[in-house]
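Your task:
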Amino acid sequence: MPKPSFAVPAIWQNALTILLLGSVVAGCSHPQMRVQTTTVKATHSPSNSMIEHGKVKTGSPYKVAGVWYYPLETGENYNRTGVASWYGAKFHGKKTANGERYDMHAMTAAHTTLPMPSRVRVTNLDNGRSIIVRVNDRGPFVKDRIIDLSRAAAEALGYLQQGTARVRVQTLDAKGIASAAPAQPHRRERLLNGDIYIQMAAFKSLKSAKELRWRLVHDYPSADISYTPNDALYRVRIGPLSSEQESQNIKTTLQRQGYANPMIVVQ
């Protein structure tokens, strides 16, 4: 069988993270990528889109190849399109991000931000085939790739040989009904499967966040403040941005302007 082109999945990351950070953070990544996590603990409750199977896990925010990923609090109403890849025998039997063992013959998948486990309908937009899989892993961390399917799932969707396919990913509610397409879908390019921001800083003080936003908003009108109750932080962000290239360009400009730590984040 020809080797498909796909992202290296999450089950390598446990060993990688132990070497790099001394802590375990599972997720799909290339072996050479450095993974960094925050100390913020995610305390999310299960949503209707999650299947009652195994332990529900969302995980803390984590960083791969310079990009921060923020696991979603809920998978409800998730409906995105992108490119699917797959992973197979090389990872069969190894641990996934939520602690299960990867079974290439099971209908499972890896996703960067959906809660685990979640049930999603994946539709091959090239041939119309549709399947339901369980998300129990993290990844893939490759531009435009939205989901990494098991070997069995890729075979069922008919893209095993070519390695990738254009797909739509929709979470299912408790009745098994897939999330409908947004009434006014975004016409922007997306990085992987989320909105792109540049995070400038995070503050305990709302006053400090407002002062930084005030300095930014003249040159960057989309600068705003996002509050997260879990860690009680006010994050100053620019965005959402139209593409990965735009975010890289703005980050470079900000660094030249003297801002030391602008970070590209996907949420």
